[in-house]
TrEMBL record:
Originating species: Asarcornis scutulata
Record-given protein name: PP4R1 phosphatase
Any one GO molecular-function label of the UniProt entry: protein phosphatase regulator activity
InterPro entries recorded: ARM-like, ARM-type_fold, HEAT, HEAT_type_2, PP2A_Regulatory_Subunit_A
Keyword Repeat carried by entry: yes
GN (gene name): Ppp4r1_0
Keyword Transcription regulation: no
PROSITE patterns in UniProt: HEAT_REPEAT (PS50077)
Keywords, sorted A to Z: Repeat
Length: 270
């Protein structure tokens, strides 16, 4: 019954955590028994079971419970098979999605050598626009996972393709992640390549693309600032933030009184 397999998948992460905490007693139980089940359920015939397996896998990766050898020898090969050009459409969409989600949890070497070539292929998938849209929406995360050199050499050409895609939703997704892509590149690439590309998005024929580009304009401009002097940095969730300077921290004690003064002034004015 698919419901039984789904329920089983939901129990795998807590069992794995227990085994990890009790490793002297169960040194190989997870790798011998549980991990093969998770890998097998990624190709289950029932989509709910596959979804449960994917969620379980991501939790295991986030908790750093999967050995590097299992990632490279068991997980990645399955995902590469599922995302192959001749794979079933539904399986391919799911595989692309999980590849993008797990990229930030793996080592840079693993992502660059095992997953990046397939990701670049999927960015040009002419059969399924859903596949290209997932790639576009997660493009910034992939750039961050592989670093500047691989981004400029392999990903930027694909980003240009997606930014000129015939489907406006693709161009909108690119506009939304533009800051994350720009942050991973060198100042010269930002100036000579990404700036003209951004102008094309902000001048797009589709109103939704232009709106997304205008919303990303400030964050994109911020990537041209010197991080050491501007204090700008990218959080783990991909959002832009500012580190407070020492002077700001020291002046925080004055902030409440300033706020009170402003509130009082606005009240009097009313």
């Amino acid at each position: 019954e698919p419901t039984v397999r789904t329920e089983l998948m939901e129990q795998i992460p807590p069992i794995a955590i227990f085994l990890q905490e009790s490793r002297p007693k169960f040194p190989t139980a997870f790798f011998e028994y549980l991990m093969p089940i998770v890998v097998r359920y990624l190709t289950d015939v029932n989509n709910q079971v596959r979804k449960a397996g994917q969620e379980a896998l991501l939790i295991l990766l986030e908790q750093d419970l999967v050995a590097q050898s299992d990632i490279e020898n068991k997980v990645c090969p399955i995902l590469l098979d599922l995302s192959a050009p001749d794979s079933d459409d539904e399986y391919k969409v799911e595989a692309v999605n999980i590849i993008c989600k797990m990229a930030s949890m793996l080592s840079r070497t693993t992502v660059e050598h095992m997953l990046l070539p397939r990701f670049c292929e999927l960015c040009s998938d002419g059969k399924l626009f859903q596949v290209r849209k997932i790639c576009a929406a997660n493009f910034g995360d992939i750039c961050n996972a592989v670093g500047q050199e691989a981004t400029e050499r392999l990903l930027i050409p694909k980003f240009f393709e997606l930014c000129s895609d015939s489907v406006w939703g693709m161009r909108k997704a690119c506009a939304e992640c533009f800051m994350a892509v720009s942050y991973t590149t060198s100042p010269e690439v930002r100036r000579s390549k990404l700036s003209p590309l951004f102008i094309s998005l902000i001048s797009d024929t589709c109103r939704w693309v232009r709106q997304a580009a205008f919303q990303s304009l400030g964050p994109f401009i911020s990537t041209f600032a010197n991080p050491s002097s501007a204090g700008l940095y990218i959080r783990e969730d991909g959002t832009l933030s500012i580190r407070p300077s020492t002077q700001d921290v020291n002046s925080n004690s004055c902030q409440p009184s300033n706020n009170i003064t402003l509130i009082a002034s606005s009240t009097n004015a009313t």
